[in-house]
Amino acid sequence: MDISESQRDPLTGLLNRLGLAAALQEFDTLGRRGLTLFSVQIARFGHINSSLGGEIADRIITLTARRLQKTFPNALHIARTHGDHFCLLFEGLDAVEETIERLDDFTRRPFAVQGEIIVLSVRCGVARMDDSLGSAGMLLHGSETALQVAKATKTRASFYKPEMEEQARQAHRFENDLRVSIVNHHADLHRALANDEFQVHYQPIIECDTGQLYAFEALMRWSHPTNGPVRPDLFIPLAEQIQVMHILGSWVIQKAIADAATWPPRADGQAVGVSINISACQFIEPAILLNTVSQALDQTKLDPALVKLEITESSAFVDTMSETLLRLKDMGCRIALDDFGKGYSCLTQLHELPLDYMKLDRSFLKDLESEDPDEAMRSRKLIQAILALSGTFDIAAIAEGVETRQQLDEVRQMGAKLVQGFLYSRARPASEIPDYIKNFVPGS
Amino acid sequence: MGALYRLAYLSKNTVKGNREEIEAEIRSILASSHRNNPALGITGALLYSGGYFCQVIEGPQDALEDLFETIQMDERHGQVTVLQFEPIEARSFGEWAMAFAGIEDEMRFDGAKILDSKDEIQAAETGRDLVSTLDRLVRQHQGVLKPS
Q1: Which sign, positive or negative, has the C-alpha torsion B55, B61, B63, B65?
Q2: Hey, of B1, B7, B14, B65, which one would you mutate to test binding to chain A, going by the most A CBs within 10 A of its CB?
Q3: N or C: which end of chain A has fewer CB within 10 A?
Q4: Can you list the domains of chain A with their CATH numbers?
């Protein structure tokens, strides 16, 4: 095939995307079968580019291109289709797994570039010509679809399957629907209209000693316009990923503080607090977070001591987070560390962050009732250790996910101050809360 | 040319063979080093220890980086781990295109552990250890193994 300048990548001399597409088309014209295409992406290459500079990044791309050429002399074509994306085209390739192994081996070997040692890793998507991909022209789309799946599932390699198309379409539609809902919702907020797609539900938090109602945790709900309710663990990470979480986060703060200001006091006259989850994303622009909280407090005149802001462990923002939390505490709010013990708990956060509460991750309680006595014992010891730690730092511990009387008794004995879970109540719509407070009978 | 750098690395020998075959392989590596390194300003030392190549190379940064890339692409080397890559004031193996420090049956460094772990401090310590060990071994072998 004749290759024009416009079909070559100037940096590496490899085919570019246009060149590869032309080559694939030519194979179709010639009626060639049995082709396999690998789409390969260097993981976190943007990070190398921003931290070490464009010159080193370009050198790594050039060296990677050379490594691929040397490692795969059997490839019909090697192309650089996009910044950190390469493609390898093979004919009659049987040893696909071996090829992935080799690709992994040679791209993982360290690069020595301008005095730095750099180690890369790659992910790849593989597409073979078969019944579902009948032409060479379809391979590029197929391998890139498979690459997206490999990235999403954090696997080294993924093989194209026709159902990935529908999954990708669905994921795209879901993401788009969330965007549309948030934009509509945001617009409605400005027009002060009600919008039912997003709602805040409230789950009670109970005092261990007295069995009294202490506060409610505000939990966001999204009702998809056609599919119905979507679980928060599905849409919140997506909202964070597509960078719209701050809009939702600000709305929840306003809504929860406004709702709490209308709640009646308990029978003994004590006011009931509200606990609001703050996403790590909201700390990227602390001014928005601080303004939202202070405006909501001003407008409602709610006692700031009744407002508890829940953060999750996130080492990435510790510096700005700490400063912002201190400002929130200055306003009179309380701070809780959510999901403590899940993932990589960092003990230094317990004294570096100005915490009033910590929430014991629900997984510990689940393990407490494990049929495996070792696991149950391990969980009991961990809970004891964490609760002892909370006592040392004078941070009140809240046990989440309490579903049975036995769990309640155990965590209470071990020193938890507050509990929440299905044993008391699921999260309820805002409209039910005033009556729930009025009718609440303290238990022990 | 670039500043003078030293690079120390470990790699697993991927070629299976008996001692004679391994010796032949090492002779071939040394021969190509003696052929190519002087023109590139590269000096260094090589020890074969329990299935691992333990090598120190030193020279101008650009030439060193190019040579390292060539080694990386050599099928005989697997699981390459860099223990040290830093600018140096003076060479340790200045007289040698590639000094040979011997073949040992048992790996003297904890290769598998270093290759598995991502502990940079441990790698740096082993790097210093490797340079000084090679230096000592090369001196012991001087006159015996010095290439003609």
Answers
A1: positive
A2: B65
A3: C
A4: 5-162 (3.30.70.270), 175-439 (3.20.20.450)
